[in-house]
Specification:
Helices cover 36% and strands 22% of the residues. With 335 residues, the protein is an alpha/beta fold. The chain folds into two domains: 3-120 and 283-303, Rossmann fold, CATH 3.40.50; 123-276 and 311-332, Dihydrodipicolinate Reductase, domain 2, CATH 3.30.360. The longest helix has 20 residues, at 305-324. 44% of the residues are buried.
């Protein structure tokens, strides 16, 4: 069985996704659209895929699934338009710009049977999967600490920040989801701080370029999450899971942008990861391949909007904690 897929949004992550989709087994065609028609035309020409003049034309074509990689503000309307036509959806996180918007989409989906898969690619990364397996098997003993790190090599464009939702919602939400998914536990309380050491456009948008949060899980485990937009050595995404018997570290390889200053410790000659697309390319491919299997009915949806909502609550609690400089329980922001 082969299927045709649509993709709307041919920007920073949309174009690579379109390229991946066009190469996946079981995909007979890809149709792209974008509010920026010139960009969509360029992507279609470069990749040899089909072009739709606008979103409505794309949705009215014979596609079985839609991949949404637009700016976040457009996600809710596109999701609803697609599922109401019976088109299965893959949407890059988040589902909406805020909790209320996410809840509106979830309520709408209660009345339809069309799956919506949300893009948390770390669930498809081999390292995160191995750490999860080690923890769940008991190999690590009882876990006492998790340490998550997400540092971009260079910040996004200035115009992206005001609509990003902020560092915790845009970037940290991946770490929050990974911690929940890996441990099977829920975050109950957070304390977060932020700082601005770089370009002034972060502060102008009410955001920060560096942040740290301490999370308490419902079983007493503590987790720290460190986030940053400036890490000149490279893109650094890691997770350390520390247990009473052993530990598991995700992202510690020869391309990790870490430099030891210990005597006689050799430096890696392999270039560090340059960005999240470089760091997670295999995971993105596996994630989209899984979506094809969801569309064909071969597998169940592995990550629905409710998972995004749970991670969003943690991000919201962190942002409130940062602004009010106090511990915040997740229940305070839960709707």
């Amino acid at each position: 069985m082969t299927i045709r897929l649509g993709l709307v949004g041919t920007g920073r992550i949309g174009r690579p996704h379109a390229e991946t989709l066009a190469m996946l087994p079981g995909v007979s065609g890809v149709v792209v659209a974008d509010a920026d028609l010139a960009r969509a035309k360029a992507t279609a020409a470069e990749l040899g895929v089909e072009l739709a003049d606008d979103v409505d034309a794309l949705l009215d074509s014979d596609i079985a699934g839609l991949v949404i990689t637009t700016s976040t503000g457009a996600h809710p309307e596109l999701i609803i338009k697609a599922v109401d036509r019976g088109i299965l959806v893959f949407c890059e996180k988040p589902v909406a710009i805020d909790i209320d918007g996410t809840l509106e989409v979830i309520r709408h989906l209660e009345n339809v049977t069309v799956p919506v898969q949300v893009g948390f690619q770390r669930r498809f990364d081999t390292g995160y999967r191995a750490a999860r397996a080690a923890l769940r098997s008991g190999e690590l003993g009882w876990v006492h600490t998790l340490r998550a790190t997400t540092f971009d090599q260079v910040p996004p464009a200035a115009e992206y920040i005001p609509t990003s939702g902020g560092l915790f919602r845009d970037c940290g939400i991946h770490d929050f989801d990974a911690i929940r998914w890996l441990t099977g536990s829920e975050v109950t309380e957070v304390y977060a701080l932020g700082a601005n050491r770089g370009a002034p456009f972060f502060g102008a948008a009410g955001d920060v370029d560096t942040a740290a949060a301490v999370l308490r899980l419902d079983d007493g485990v503590l987790a720290t999450v460190s986030l940053g937009r400036y890490n000149g050595a490279g893109c650094d995404v890691r997770l350390e899971v520390l247990g009473s018997r052993a530990n598991a570290v995700v992202g510690l390889d020869d391309r990790a942008p870490l430099r030891s200053v210990e005597p006689d410790y050799p430096a890696s000659s392999i270039p560090a990861y340059s960005g999240f697309l470089d760091r997670f390319r295999p995971a993105f491919t596996e994630e989209l391949s899984t979506f094809v299997s969801v569309v064909t009915g071969a597998v169940e949806n592995p990550c629905g909007p409710a998972e995004v909502l749970a991670a969003f609550y943690i991000a919201e609690a962190c942002e409130l904690s940062r602004r009010e400089r106090r511990p915040v329980t997740v229940d305070e922001v839960r709707r």
